[in-house]
Write a structure and sequence with these properties.
- The protein contains 11 helices and 14 strands.
- It is an alpha/beta fold and 440 residues long.
- The protein has one domain.
- The strands form 2 sheets. Strands 1, 2, 7, 8, 9, 10, 11, 12, 13 and 14 form a 10-stranded mixed β-sheet that branches. It has a 4-stranded antiparallel β-sheet with strand order 3-6-4-5, covered by helices on one side.
- Strand 12 and strand 13 form a beta hairpin.
- Helix 4 packs across helix 5 and helix 5 crosses helix 6.
- The longest helix has 25 residues.
- The protein is globular and about 60 Å long.
Length: 440
């Protein structure tokens, strides 16, 4: 029995007496680092032996980019001060931290080790640590009706990652490079939900979870990968890292993640509605891409699900996935947990796709939220927007009862204690101790 964990991933249960888990999530805990093969326009070096390829037939160089760990993300001029509300030097001690070293956290590159609970924002397709393909995403519509005409690159850069309006893409372009299609290594991903990954590791170490399968994307552009390379990567992650890879086009992922999730859905969930009306064309485009990625997850999970397996879906990137899976797998046991906030019905109803999102969530058997307040907001939205019968414990949907519970994510003490040894944390301890020496 397996538990599928989907959070752009999927996992399974601890023992044969418990149901297995498939855990889908936007990003897998793993990504791929390709071997540098040469700069564009320069003589290409001979590729190294493949990580897992039997032969090199059909393989060739990838149009990619090199990372530059020395680059710093810059704050946009419209962002808040580094410490909002700070008025004295002591209050300003908590200034922003910019990584100077890609390997400053010793366990960061270990695919099976713990990682930061809150990984730093890394723009999709702009890794600061790994050699990876360049995005081939095509042009997308402008969001606001007040937007000035701009180039395709400017349009892409505006919504690459992080909370909209907070962080921009790295200020300098990375070197364009050739990457070896048959020489790569599996690395711990820069993106993803670190707290969830650490919780899964803790459950495994405690013997609670034994049979799991992550489900998610590689967290990088994949249009440049040849079919044989994709197959080898897919087989390696499945057999050695308990992971099912979901492949979508660069345009689909960028429309889903950078446009709908980060520019439409995330602000609404956090009570940050747009200041100017959005183009209908933009809303339609981003919503279509959101659905396509969710459908790709549904197809991957449905083709690997077996009777008795459990499916555990995570976060707002996959809100329609429970409903899509319910249509494909009517008897499957499906759980969903929202790590973000859920707003009041007055705010949620402002989303054009509000009914489809609620219907998608209600495909689950159990929906979990971080607080009782979020549970109340969700139940109220189901009552007001879908005219469904609700109670304090859930929602009645035809002949099914969907349980709704508050189940906040806990803390993995052991992994946090290990990460205390990182250079960054030691620097903070030293700085605070010196600043308040004799006062505490």
């Amino acid at each position: 029995m397996t538990v599928f964990i989907a959070s752009l991933y999927v996992t399974s249960p601890a023992s044969r007496s418990a149901p297995p888990h498939i855990q889908p999530s936007s990003f897998l805990p793993y990504t791929i680092d390709f071997e540098y093969s040469g700069r564009i326009g320069r003589r290409q070096r001979k590729p190294s032996p493949s990580y897992s390829a039997v032969d090199n037939s059909g393989l060739g160089p990838i149009d990619g980019r090199q990372p530059d760990p020395r680059r710093k993300l810059r704050l946009r001029s419209s962002s808040l001060s580094l410490t909002p509300g700070a008025t004295t030097d002591d209050e300003k001690i908590f200034k922003g931290y910019d990584s100077q070293s890609a390997g400053e956290i010793l366990t960061a590159d270990d695919p099976v080790g713990p990682g930061p609970n809150e990984p730093r924002a890394v723009p999709w397709g702009h890794s600061r640590k790994f050699n990876q393909p360049r995005s081939k995403a095509t042009f997308s519509p402008q969001p606001s009706i007040l937007s000035r005409p701009c180039s395709h690159q400017e349009s892409r850069d505006s919504f690459l990652d992080g909370a909209p309006g907070i962080m921009s893409k790295p200020p300098f372009g990375s070197p364009r490079a050739l990457l070896a299609d048959d020489d790569w290594a599996v690395k711990a991903a820069e993106q993803g939900h670190g707290g969830l990954q650490n919780a899964i590791h803790a459950a495994e170490e405690a013997g609670i979870l034994q049979d799991k399968m992550w489900v998610g994307t590689l967290g990088m552009p994949t249009d440049s990968l040849k079919p044989k390379t994709r197959k080898i990567i897919e087989e390696t992650l499945r057999e050695e890292f308990e992971s099912l890879s979901v492949f979508v086009s660069d345009s689909e992922f960028e429309g889903h993640y950078a446009h709908f999730c980060r520019a439409v859905l995330w602000p609404a969930l956090n009570y940050q509605m747009q200041e100017s009306p959005r183009h209908t064309e933009y809303d339609d485009y981003s919503w279509r891409q959101y659905l396509r990625v969710n459908e790709a997850f549904a197809d991957t999970i449905a083709s690997n699900w077996r009777p008795g397996d459990c499916i555990w879906i995570h976060d707002y990137h996959l809100l329609t996935l429970p409903g899509l899976l319910r249509k494909r797998l009517p008897t499957a046991e499906i759980g969903f947990f929202l790590h973000a906030a859920f707003p009041s019905s007055e705010v949620f109803r402002c989303l054009n796709s509000r009914e489809a999102l609620l219907d998608g969530l209600l495909g689950a058997d159990l929906i979990g939220f971080q607080t009782e307040e979020y549970c109340h907001h969700f139940l109220h939205s189901c009552s007001r927007l879908r005219r469904l019968e609700v109670s304090a414990n859930g929602v009645q949907v035809n002949n099914r009862f969907v349980h709704v519970k508050s189940q906040p994510l806990g803390i993995d003490y052991e992994s946090l204690n290990l990460l205390r040894q990182s250079i960054e944390v030691k620097a903070w301890i030293s700085s605070i101790a010196q600043r308040y020496k004799g006062n505490i």
